[in-house]
Amino acid sequence: MLNCAAIVGRLVNDPELRKTASDVSVCSFTVAVDRSFVRQGEERQADFIDVVAWRNNAEFISKYFSKGQLIAIDGSIQTRNYEDKNGNKRKSTEIVVNNAHFCGPKSDSGSAGRSEGAAIYQPAPSFSTADEGDFKEIPEDDLPF
Predict the structure, then answer these.
(1) Which CA distances in Å does 57 have to 73, 75, 96, 137?
(2) Does 124 have pLDDT greater than 90?
(3) What torsion, rounded to 10 degrees, do the Cα atoms 61, 67, 71, 73 define?
(4) Phi, psi at residue 45, to the nearest 5°?
(5) Backbone Cα Rg of the chain
(6) CA distance 12 to 69
(7) Which residue intervals of 55-119 are DSSP H helices?
């Protein structure tokens, strides 16, 4: 059997860390993922995917991610049945996080936690504009392979 899910999208709200009765960290949030196609004359659509993270993943996500930030998630799809407050039977489908990764550029706030300002994109240096003096020759006996 194979159950793999990988998504990249933006957090709809700030992730909120909670604890179970047995003191296990859990974090539930929704990720907006753009669809890969756009019908002519229409705006791009997005799917809003429910995600749940447990233990260290939950603590990591709640500490370092915030609303609107890009996040990459890989995990597995899980369904569960429950009864709501009115006694109606419900079914929930969500991705359970195995790994979470940063996707966007670093924020300009310089802090390790949640970013307050807008991110600044800085392109990588181009080697086509490099001068010959930017490189130095390494003797063959110093190569690691």
Answers:
(1) 11, 11, 10, 43
(2) no
(3) 60
(4) -95, 160
(5) 21
(6) 9
(7) 55-64
C-alpha span between 4 and 74 (Å, rounded): 7
Alpha-carbon distance 3 to 12, whole Å?
24
Pairing relation of β-strands 70-83 and 16-19?
unpaired
Q: How confident is the model at residue 109 (pLDDT cuts 50, 70, 90)?
A: very low
Cα–Cα distance between 22 and 55 in angstroms, integer? 12
Pairing label, strands 25-34, 16-19: antiparallel
Look up residue 43 and give its amino acid. Answer: E
pTM for this entry: 0.70
If 0-12 CB within 10 Å is exposed, 13-18 middle and 19+ buried, where does residue 47 land?
exposed
What number of other Cβ atoms are within 10 A of residue 14's Cβ? Answer: 13
Mean pLDDT for all residues in the chain: 83
pLDDT tens digit sequence for 64-95: 999 999 999 999 999 999 999 999 999 999 99
* Nearest residue to 51 via CA among 34, 72, 37: 72
What is the per-residue pLDDT for 145?
57
